[in-house]
Amino acid sequence: MTQRTKIWLSSALVYAAFVFWYTDFSGPLSDAEVDQFVVTMTQNGSDPSTVAYIETFLRNDSGRQFLMLNALDLNDNPPDVEGAEPGESAQQLMDRYMEHMYPELFKRASHPVIFGQAAYTVLDNVGIENAEQWTDGAIFRYRSRRSFMDLIANPSLKGRHAFKLAALDKTIAYPIETSIYLGDMRLILGLILLSVTALLDSLLLARRPFS
């Protein structure tokens, strides 16, 4: 096997391994899986109306990745929360929540895509009350609804959720399945690996003596 072949093969194997981890190939959730998640949420003490609402979301699973769009309005005067220092700010409480969330997200090939502070108040609002003011916005990528439920049905998150609730004055979040998503990590990594491998290949060719 030539050195050039090794370079291209190594790049292909790295990309294949990433795609295998980053993509849920199991297809849509089965009825048995949904039933189990419903049982788990109920046992964790979730409100029955919330359980029923999420169940509908799960039973209409397409098996694809999705993005969660989040509008956040941090609380100017959050209450004290057990497990946090008295007088902590909303951002400190949110950091406590995300400190635990980030590792759980990354283990499931899920991650933030965009996060930032609001640059101004709402510029366009139709039919929504109390929606003029937001402090932050975020988009999170989830590998699938299966991975999403593995995360939110995790009992270890139950105590941490209080930090998020205390940090927020209001929030709205809803999922979308993309038709155009140029930020997909499979595309980005593929382009990076292709560029780096092609560069290394060119350097090998340049070092070859002319016959």
**Count of alpha/pi helices:** 7
Q: Roughly what fraction of the amino acids lie in strands?
A: 15-25%
Mean pLDDT: 93
CATH architectural type of the largest domain: 2-Layer Sandwich
Helix-strand sequence: HHHEHEEHHEH
Low-confidence stretches: none
Coarse morphology: globular
Give the beta-strand count: 4
Number of separate domains: 2
Separation of the first and last Cα atoms: 21 Å
Question: Percent range for helical residues?
Answer: 40-55%
Stated plainly, the CATH topology of the largest domain is called Alpha-Beta Plaits
Placed side by side, the strands forming the largest sheet appear as 2-3-1-4
The top-level CATH class of the largest domain is Alpha Beta
| Sheet with most strands | 4 strands, antiparallel
The whole-angstrom Rg is 22 Å
Structural class: alpha+beta
